[in-house]
Amino acid sequence: MNEIEMDHLAIANELLANVRQMMDTTDRYCVIELLARQDARTTAEVYQKLQLDLYWKHKNLPAVVAFSQAGIQHCLTAADKAGDAADGMALRGSAKHLAYNLASFTWPGWNQEGITITVSDLVVGLEAARLNFRLAEELARPDKAKANALWMLGAQQLAAEDFQTAAQTFLRGKSHAHQANETSIERMLHGYAMLARLLAEPTNGVAHTNFQDALTSLKADGSSDAVEYANQLTVALAVFEKPTQRGAAG
Question: For 29-76, what is each residue's pLDDT tens digit?
Fold first, then answer.
């Protein structure tokens, strides 16, 4: 990190401290006004830090949604107005980062303790996932990033119970993971495609077997990431399966 980047980070951290104090005494729009007066990239940095702070430390999903959307809008608008091409690309990258986290934080499949996700949150999350993938393509991100973006989009489609589309999205992501030589991610995306098919046909014995085979393949991968992916798939199944499906599986 060079001296300019260090100064930029220091300013962002100081501004974030001010924002935290303001949130206890004023409305959110006052915070957004304050941030709008700052350097565009500094503001983007604060929004990213604030997003994580509100989710992980405060478990305040309504605030996460509000400030994430404000941050995304700020980044996209500032990017269009940026006189420097590098600044514009960086700001769109910040918008992508905010969008990915917003989609992730509004996904019920994590079964995150202390987080309650509403129907409107799901709508927000799906739109954020769409934006994240669009920006991955527009910014010419590598195949691994596109695979992750397609996982996030498929995950939100899964939450919307659009199982057929979700399965197709996961398989598109699997192709990108294969191109990137990311075996664990490729197996994970295959597992989610099988999960989508199982949720679409909960009494289909072949779909159940295919899902279990995908879990077995992940666990046999040997990497810590693959084991974590297998565990998360199991959690996601428990979150999304219907009571009748649990009975059929038993």
Answer: 988 998 998 889 889 999 999 999 999 999 999 999 999 999 999 999
* C-alpha separations of 22 from 17, 18, 42, 58, 249 in Å: 9, 6, 18, 15, 51
Q: Which residues are CB-neighbours of 23 under 8 A, at least 6 positions away?
A: 31, 63
Amino acid residing at 86:
A
Tell me the average pLDDT across 137-154: 98
Structure tokens at 77: 């608008």
The Cα–Cα gap between 239 and 246 comes to 11
Residue 248's pLDDT band, with cuts at 50, 70 and 90, is very low
- How far is the C-alpha of 185 from the C-alpha of 247, rounded, in Å? 30
80-88: which pairs have CB atoms within 8 A and are 24 or more residues apart? 82/40, 87/40, 87/41
Structural domains of the chain, count = 2
Q: Which domain holds residue 74?
A: 1-141
Amino acid present at 197:
R
Residue 204 sits in the same domain as residue 111: no
What phi and psi, each to the nearest 5 degrees, are found at residue 130?
Answer: -65, -45
Q: Name the amino acid, one letter, at 198.
A: L
